[in-house]
Design goal:
Layout (H helix, E strand, L loop, with lengths): L5 E6 L10 H10 L2 E6 L4 H13 L4 E5 L11 H10 L5 E10 L7 H18 L3 E6 L2 H11 L6 E3 L6 H9 L3 E4 L24 E3 L25 H12 L3 H16 L5
Parallel strand pairs: 1-2, 2-3, 3-4, 4-5, 5-6, 6-7, 7-8
Helix pairs in contact: 2-3, 4-5, 7-8
The protein binds zinc ion.
The site of zinc ion (ZN) has 4 residues, from loops.
Length: 267
Amino acid sequence: MIASSLIDIGINLSHDSFNADRDAVIARAVAAGVVQMMVTGSSGPSTRQAIEMARTHPGRLFATAGVHPHHAKELTEELLAQLGQLATLPQVVAVGECGLDYFRDLSPRAVQQKTFHRQLELAARVRKPVFLHQRDAHADFVAILQEHRASLVGGVAHCFTGSQEELTAYLQMDLAIGITGWICDERRGAHLLPLMSEIAADRLLLETDGPYLLPRDLPAKPESRRNEPSFLPHIAATVARARGESLEQLAATSTAAARRLFGLPSL
Ligand SMILES: [Zn+2]
């Protein structure tokens, strides 16, 4: 079953696990109705790779430019200046992924916070939306974001897995919400189902976050356990069911919302 056009707003296509068959992954996505994809930049090198992919697949792939909180301690003044240049390129449609991750704590929290501030300033400067990551750091995340919100053109809370309170806080900050296959996990994603109808259609975006977060209830799981954009219609169907609407309806509104927020062209 192919829905009308979907957009995967978060695919880590520079990940090594895609090295052998990246073009086939893109072709499978397109065949499944995933017509455009945003390749996540999460470090200096992965941002450059994402931009290169967007250059070679114009109109199909787009890039984000940023440093994930795991890599926060890599953000030197030099890299920040480079990101500032890269973020102005037409292939780059958002700054990030950036934010706070106190679950893994791979960079010290103070460094994560400073790196987050710098990237929010950068996004305001280049007038592009932010691609936000938050895990186990809601209070600090909201406090920092609030300092910058008025100067930002917009943003998405990517891979939202939080509570009703967290959702309300993000919606009040006028953020879009990115939903992944986490919602397909009956053990840890069930709480998300009733929240879906609280998100206005023009704020709801879809993403796989592949190669991570393979939907647990996929009828035929790949042996590799690798998640990829061709599985986005499965996630979309789960979200549509939770909202009591058709897949076609959700596809139309979420695709329009993604194009509006990130300035993506229609195909
Ligand atoms: Zn993330």
